[in-house]
Design a protein that fits this description.
This protein is an alpha+beta fold and 156 residues long. The chain has 6 helices and 4 strands, in the order ααααααββββ. The longest helix has 26 residues.
Amino acid sequence: MVDIFNDAYADKSRFVTQTLALIQSIEPPEEDHTKEIVLLRRKKEKLLELSLDDLISKQEFRQRNEELNRQLEALASREKKAAQCIDMPHIRALLERELSFQAPVNSELAASIVDRIVVHNTGDRQRAKLDIHLKMGRLVPAEYGKNAAVLCCKNS
């Protein structure tokens, strides 16, 4: 089966490149926290004014200031995550590994590629003739022996 998949997807690099281009064309939604950041900075300024005017204690200033700083850091972290690019080299490596069809073949991937398999009666209990119909419209004839792997595999 590995040989059949490798033959059927001989142009894997083109498929991987097209898939990556599709992924890159999808832009993640941008999160705009500008208003929230401006509001938090104003609160920090007001808090400082309250402290300078001795309207709040130093301890209360520290506590409130630390909380505002935590909120600012959380917003900055979310913006950074949103701005990070998709790790294309990692995705490329995953695609190439899955499409290399190294044993064991990923059964979900095989199911997504194979449309149906027709088994023909050969009259020989030691051999089976198969027509493997792929979802991309290709027919891959194969012949299996009881004690051997693919005896022949021709792409049409």
